[in-house]
Amino acid sequence: MKDKECKVFNCKNKHEALGYCERHYKSYIRHGNPLQVDKNLKKRENRKDIQRATKNKRFSTNGVCLIDGCDEPRKSRGLCEKHYARWRRNGTTDSTGRRYSHIKTCLRIDCNRPAKTAGLCDTHAGYYYQYGSPYLPKVIKKCGIEWCDKPHQAKGLCMDHYRQWKKILLENERN
Length: 175
Prior knowledge:
The protein is 37% helix and 0% strand. It is elongated. The protein is an all-alpha fold.
């Protein structure tokens, strides 16, 4: 029998828990997003590329930025203040803030508000950054009884426990 694979696209590692391999599962537990570990790895690799390129080189703060087409004075590691800040924040000197500038309305279905961040309106961008999706997650409340996993129906109880509670309540009123 073939072992289950991680449900993350292009991950061939063995399934560990919740459909994820150990690496993606730990990322899901730590960050709430199984792909965060891949994003962090990509940032780290980009930082290492810049560090490798500038390793053992002493850059003076005299001169202009090493990035082609930038004539700003150097700040650190041979980069100007803007490119150095991007490198520190994103792990790359590329501009990442302009990817969605051509989008005028929110990308979420049934939303016609103007897009502001990442192609989404303020509300849906907030949902995206908080939950990983521009949609609010559906919250299914469980029964108030500790060991019961049925969805709650009334008074914080599932239908079975609600009926039992109501039956006891009626018996107590009669007595």
